[in-house]
Design brief:
alpha/beta
């Protein structure tokens, strides 16, 4: 069984879903420490003037003591309506906006999110459904994984019964390859090359590393997976 894991990031880029498409099981690593000003609560979308960062405000006091799964959203601001309007303004004329409009409205206007992890997981599951990827999903917080860094990942692999684990791009810098080999777990280190695709009304240089929102607004869901996998 091929396993991969990732922190439940906000509106993630396509490289995250590349790992998931290659796996047989996916683990939301919600036990990782929350990283302020990283991708846990923010990501970029396309605009005609370049990229725009959307950030979810969080109650991040003492965030060094909190995991991602315990981070609460600061709903004292109207961030959800602002994010919806930004997406609407910049994508409403894109070829496949209407396919996703109901979901976007539900996510930002109809739902009320208290925890960041719930918001992020909700989006992931929508994308996985679009990609027609029926895969077992587990939450790390629901298991008793032990250790730190590489040892923690190995313990996760062993407890979930993985024979192969897919690390992200930086995994090779900290993975203890010997311990995985001794445990009989093969390793794959993702070296993802971002594909170039047609961006609506983009007459200049392609803008890469945006949220996967950009890709699904430009292409029918039947073609999204093949673009991610570069087939």
């Amino acid at each position: 069984m091929i396993l991969t894991a990732h922190q439940p990031t906000y509106l993630p880029w396509i490289g995250t879903f590349h790992k998931i498409l290659l796996a047989d099981m996916f683990c939301f690593f919600d036990i990782a420490q929350y990283q302020k000003k990283e991708w846990d609560n923010r990501n970029k979308i396309y605009t005609y003037n370049g990229e725009l960062m959307l950030s979810v405000p969080t109650k991040s006091q003492k965030h060094f003591d909190k995991t991602i799964g315990n981070i609460e959203i600061n709903n004292e601001t109207n961030w959800a309506e602002k994010h919806y309007k930004s997406i609407l303004l910049n994508y409403k004329k894109h070829p496949f906006f209407e396919n996703h409009q109901a979901f976007i409205e539900d996510m930002f206007l109809n739902q009320k999110w208290d925890k960041l992890v719930d918001l992020n997981v909700y989006f992931y599951k929508y994308i996985l459904k679009l990609l027609d990827k029926d895969i077992p999903i587990v939450m790390a917080s629901e298991h008793d994984f032990q250790g730190k860094k590489s040892d923690l990942v190995l313990d996760m692999c062993q407890k979930l019964g993985a024979s192969t684990y897919i690390f992200g791009g930086e995994g090779e810098n900290y993975a203890d390859k010997r311990s995985f080999k001794d445990a009989g777990v093969d390793l794959i280190f993702q070296k993802y090359q971002h594909p170039v695709y047609n961006q609506y009304r983009n007459k200049s240089d392609f803008i890469s590393h945006l949220s996967i929102l950009d890709l699904i607004m430009n292409y029918d869901s039947k073609n999204v997976a093949s673009i991610i996998l570069q087939k």
